[in-house]
Amino acid sequence: MSSIADINAETRSLCDADSTSYIAADLLRRVNYGYEQVIGWIINADGTWQWDDTNYTNFPIGTLTLTAGTGRYSFNDRFLQLEEVQVRNSAGDYIILDPIDQKEYSSYSPLSEDFETAGFPQYYDKVADDTIQLFPPPSATAVTLASGLRIKFKRTADLYTSAQVTTGTKVPGFASPYHVILSWMAARPFCAVYKKDLVPWLNTMIGDLTPVPTGMKKAIIEHYGRRQKDQRKVATMRWTPYR
């Protein structure tokens, strides 16, 4: 398991650099850039197991207070992928809504015309990266407005801050065998200028510059693509035809 102090030390060692030649601000920016890239790979490959950065102290679930008659709601910039949208009914229970795309709904009338009367929302549409529209808009009698909207989502990494670099103890929020990739990714732009002979090796080790992932990128994708929730493995018979 590598802390941010270990990641920085390994990066500078690879580059034959020190804190003067590879300043802290540049190193922090590049580690975070690599961190977000790795998280993107993981999120796109996480199979049935819902991955989240282990540094977060809360779950990737957000709640918002609904406004009667208002159907559009936005989220913060940590949101990456929408998993599920729920609305709280008048009894206080959360009900899962169905996704719908206004563009594919009808060529004759928009959703807003078919759901003009406020009530209990049945559908949601993603109208922007961080915004959804509820159909119909909620009414005060059909829903519980306070904390009435609950959203499950995937979010970006819990990125490093300069203060955390100073303490040096925070570790990346993904599997520890792959932490060293952040050192390789942070070393590459520095070496592209000052140690060009090392760049081909870094490219090979990272494995992110080919159409089909290789190197550690491939290993990360395979690791998170195989993970499953607590499911019991059951042996089944395979039928083989004979000729």
Structure description:
This protein has 243 residues and is of the alpha+beta class. The chain is built from 8 helices and 8 strands; from the N terminus they run H-H-E-E-E-E-E-H-H-E-E-E-H-H-H-H. It has helices at 4-15, 24-45, 102-105, 111-114, 162-167, 180-194, 199-206, 215-226; strands spanning 61-64, 72-74, 79-88, 94-96, 98-99, 123-128, 131-135, 149-155. It has a 4-stranded antiparallel beta sheet with strand order 1-8-3-4, with no helix packed on it. A 4-stranded mixed beta sheet has the order 2-7-6-5, with no helix packed on it.
Q: Tell me about the biggest sheet? A: 4 strands, antiparallel
Side-by-side strand order of the widest sheet:
1-8-3-4
Q: Please count the beta strands (DSSP E, at least 2 residues each).
A: 8
- Distance between the ends: 54 Å
Helix content: 25-40%
Low-confidence stretches: 229-243
Shape by Cα distribution: elongated
Average predicted local confidence, pLDDT: 86
If helices are DSSP runs of H or I spanning 4 or more residues, what is the number of helices? 8
